């Protein structure tokens, strides 16, 4: 089968490897579509993802496909279901390391609920936390929505961790797929005013189309006039980039007792300037999704999709065949892509 490999930092290739062999608790999924994660996948290719320094690696964690075979103990997948979150399973047998391996012609999903019932859902038994979000999606969720849901459910799953509730006033820094998802999903969820910050006017315009109430540049929100007018009125400030400099830029805007929310993998030694913050605030670090919340979010997303309130067409700007993976990443690197999908 085909799989996307990063043989060394800065290089990508499509390699033929063996199709995974499933065990009793797994299902085999034939991939229909994958989506690039502009942050994680790009960092893995560049050799800049924290903690990952062993190559070659099999790439990708956003995919959707059709179940073609199931193990004898599997209950929650059946042939013909559409599933998301699959990985290749035995990296050692393939001669590669894990970059999740979801950009493969065939991937494996695990029946986490059965593993849990039988006491096998532990790291000692070889169970990853990501097994919990290897799920089916309802039949009305088409491949485009299914694969973009890998991003949406991570973001919506963070709402509880970030103490976001309907009516709250929020400012989001960064208008990539994550920042725009906070806007789009936040409006559907019932947040109140949602403002967004980005350096590029074109991205701010996209954010407004997604429902953002106001768009600002970093320079605008750091002026004394803006800070005075905001008067610490934001219930939550969200860093959708993962940089301490971003957090520091919005600390003067958060209200007393408000929430400072970091979405993304940050340096191990961030520095926050507490002189800019109210003396009481809650700091939330969301470097990886809380898997139970991520899984539960799919139910709400599926409802919004069925109602026509949420569409992948709002996010997908580029489409490629998997053989064009290098061109796809080049477009990401040039900053042209909001969300890019590739078909097998």
UniProtKB/TrEMBL annotation:
Domain (Enoyl reductase (ER)): give its ranges.
Answer: 10-342
Name one matching Pfam family: ADH_N
**Protein origin, superkingdom:** Bacteria
Record flagged with keyword Signal: no
Names of required cofactors? Zn(2+)
Q: Which UniProt keywords apply?
A: Metal-binding, Oxidoreductase, Zinc
Q: Which SMART domains match?
A: PKS_ER
Family of this protein: Belongs to the zinc-containing alcohol dehydrogenase family.
Name recorded for this polypeptide:
Zinc-binding dehydrogenase
Question: What does the organism's lineage look like at the top?
Answer: Bacteria, Pseudomonadati, Bacteroidota, Bacteroidia, Bacteroidales
